[in-house]
Amino acid sequence: MVRYSVEPDVPEKTSKSRGSHLRIHFKHCREIAHHTAGMNAQKALKFCDEVLAFKTTVPFVRYTGGIGHHAQAKQHKSPGNAGRWPVKAMQVYKDLLSNAVANAETKGLDGTLLVITHAQCNRAPPGRRRTYRAHGRVGKYASQPAHIEIILTEKSDAVEKADEGPRVKISKKMAARRRFIKIG
Questions:
Q1: How does pLDDT run along the chain (184 residues), one tens digit per residue?
Q2: Backbone angles phi, psi at 121, to 5 degrees
Q3: Given Cys at both, which of 32, 49, 82, 99 links 60, Cβ 3.0 to 4.6 Å?
């Protein structure tokens, strides 16, 4: 049993999935997880398919250095239209998401009501290699892998708000009088 960074309130209504030491760029994973958090699981899977088909971009919000600007990024209101199509990271994320959906269906949860309540990406220890530089020197050549964890929660149907009676307006002076408690 592995520890997740968040424990759900109702474990019977949730399903989890995680991957450790994944050989995909951490920054790409962070942007994918940030964008899909809060989405319906089916909508997120559709988004993954569209990115893999180059029909939409993943909006880059935090790690924007050197990221190109694309018209497709306007769909997601990305700052400065910065977006990319991180194919390898998206494929791994889609596999983890579909695994979480399968785990939910195994638990007997409804697949159409699943929402991504927690999607987190952490840096994993870098894979260290070396590259050979000029004048006989050696430089580092490190990869930046990632840990990803996803938690899906089955959302119940919305409950209508009960009708309240007409609200009585109270002046500031009256509210202050009510707060003041007379003793003795």
A1: 688 899 888 899 999 999 999 999 999 999 999 999 999 999 999 999 999 999 999 999 999 999 999 999 999 988 999 999 999 999 999 999 999 999 999 999 998 999 999 999 999 999 999 999 999 999 999 999 999 999 999 988 777 777 777 888 899 998 888 888 777 6
A2: -135, 130
A3: 82
Helix (H, G, I), strand (E, B) or coil at 26: helix
DSSP 170: -
Burial-class residue 108 by CB neighbours within 10 Å (0-12, 13-18, 19+).
exposed
* φ and ψ at residue 96, rounded to 5 degrees: -65, -40
130-156: b or e for each residue (b if 16 or more CB lie within 10 Å)? eeeeeeeeeeeeeebbbbbbbbbbbee
Phi-psi group of 130: left, alpha or beta (phi > 0 → left; psi -120 to 50 → alpha; rest → beta): beta
Q: Is the pTM of this model over 0.90?
A: no
Helix H or strand E segment including 107: helix 87-107
CA distances from 148 to 2, 13, 107, 132, 184 (A): 13, 21, 21, 32, 62
Between CA 139 and CA 129 the distance in angstroms is: 9
Measured distance CA(63)–CA(31) in Å, rounded? 8
Q: At residue 139, what are phi and psi to the nearest 5 degrees?
A: -115, 160
